Amino acid sequence: LAYHNALVSQMSSGLIDRFTMEKRFCRPDGSMTWTQLSRRLYRDQTGKPVQELNALVDITALKEAQMKIAAAKDEAERLNVQLEDAITQAQQLAREANLASQAKSQFLAMMSHEIRTPMNGVLGMTSLLLDGPLSRDQRELADTIQSCGDALLGIINDILDFSKIESGRLDLDLTEFSVRECVESALDVLASRAAEKGIDLLYEVADGVPGNVRGDASRLRQVLINLLGNALKFTTKGEVVLSVQAVPDTDPEPELLFAVRDTGIGIEKDALGRLFQSFSQVDASTTRRYGGTGLGLAISKRLVNLMGGRVWVESEPGKGSTFSFTIRIEPLPSKPRPFVNAGRHSLDGKHLLMVDDNATNLRILSALARNWGMVPHAESDPLVALALLRSGRHFDLAVLDMQMPEMDGTMLATEIRKTIPGTVLPLVLLSSIGQRVEGDLFAANLTKPVKPSLLLEVLTAALNSVATEVAVDAPVGEAVSDLLGVAVITRAERVLLAEDNLVNQRIVLRMLSKLGFAAEVVGNGREALEAVGRQSYDIILLDVQMPEMDGLETAAHLVRDYPVAGVRPWIIALTANAMQGDRENCLAAGMDDYLAKPIKLGDLLRVLDHACHQRQARNPKVTVTIST
Ligand code: ADP
To answer: How far apart are CA 435 and CA 421, in angstroms?
Structure first.
């Protein structure tokens, strides 16, 4: 009111001619009314007031709205302050959580390392123990220690990997490698487990998959082993099939698609989503029945993501599951693949009979045989196959599966020999590890999953009727010294065998021991050079196709490091005799002799004898003591 009066007196004294103000009135009922008052005073020319205009507008609604807005604004500001506080707090918590997670990962990594060190001791010593003379009981005990130790180490490795991935410290190690060899080495690890469970473990690499690529072979192998291991774990009968194909139209960054299909228990739909999370298993009873940490798939997923791909699963409970994943790879110019061309001419046009109750295996074998120019005939029923042979149908070779219902491979072979007397049809037995059939019923025993390179070697050899000499699969788990132990070392020459293929290693070692040579074995050229650096060898059997450093490169290194021929070990190339000019290349690289696979005992003896004579001639100081 004072303010109003002041303005009125200013207006009557002529200082202002108008004013506007807000006024609040209290109604008799106590309610409040807001008004806007506008007053204007008009004067005549002499300055005398003549007229006054008063306007009173009810602005209660406007005022209330304004008050609400102001209140809302206050509230918003208060909330904003709260929000900022919360954000600061959350950031602080995240920092702490991050530190805690890093600390946890570092702790896990450290613990894993700490556990691994004594584990290595346990496993190393056990393998030494197994390599020595042991009674059957002792061997069984040591075997158990080793397999339990292996399992424990697997879990520790998982934890280590997981913590590395979590803390973002897992890097890929890119090297040049062969996709096929990587796949085969993963299958090697699981072949015996598949055999124990009586499950067919099969694989196929489709045309168009680059042979040679750059990538992280050991991480790829790890993912494959995990998926194959799961597939075997959750399957009790049927098959586990690994297939590899190139995804079309993904240039310039080509993708490979891997799929592991099993005929196992399958996975319920609602569990599929959880599968790739860490520490997650489909259910607790599964855990109890099958064991496992629930880390495998989580690690695999992260590794696959690191390799630029993705992983997914399709499954039907009771029918089986298919785990698929892609990775991006850089294709490199292919190295010649020995088994693609090797022996082609001798297999060309030959009629191959394959008998197996497993349709997938028949399909894979047929494709391989067709690739080699053969005319395959696949038969799932042994009785039909027998009838076919009885009817006089001509075949040059037959591959028989061991595990078939009703009539197994040995029975079928016996039947073939009995009912078709005088038949010269060479028979190759395909079976699981440990089911070797001795005697001359079969030209060769092969184990599933059969490697194309080995199958080709065996088929060629069987056709040439030489395979009986070569034991293509020594029982797995047999210590090398077991093989050597039976032989008497009668030769003074020290032999080094450089060969990457485990089966071939066993074959050659067994032959060497039969011939009286003590031999050591390494898996590639680099290791061969290291071995030669450590101690002297008289003869080196050098496989030409090896990872890391092949035979040719190794020979060149040896010639450079030991220019004097008498000092240098005598180098014998072992090749699949695949490429033209192979022999010339080996000799040009500095090798002294050459032996084509499949290696026959007689040939090996011939080149070794030659080597011994030559070395004596070159270096008469070397004395050969033959002790019998
Ligand atoms: P774990 O070490 O326990 O096997 P994984 O991460 O490898 O851990 O697997 C998690 C779970 O996924 C398994 O416990 C199992 O329930 C399910 N699973 C994985 N692979 C298969 C499969 N091939 N068939 C059925 N269930 C599977």
So the answer is: 25
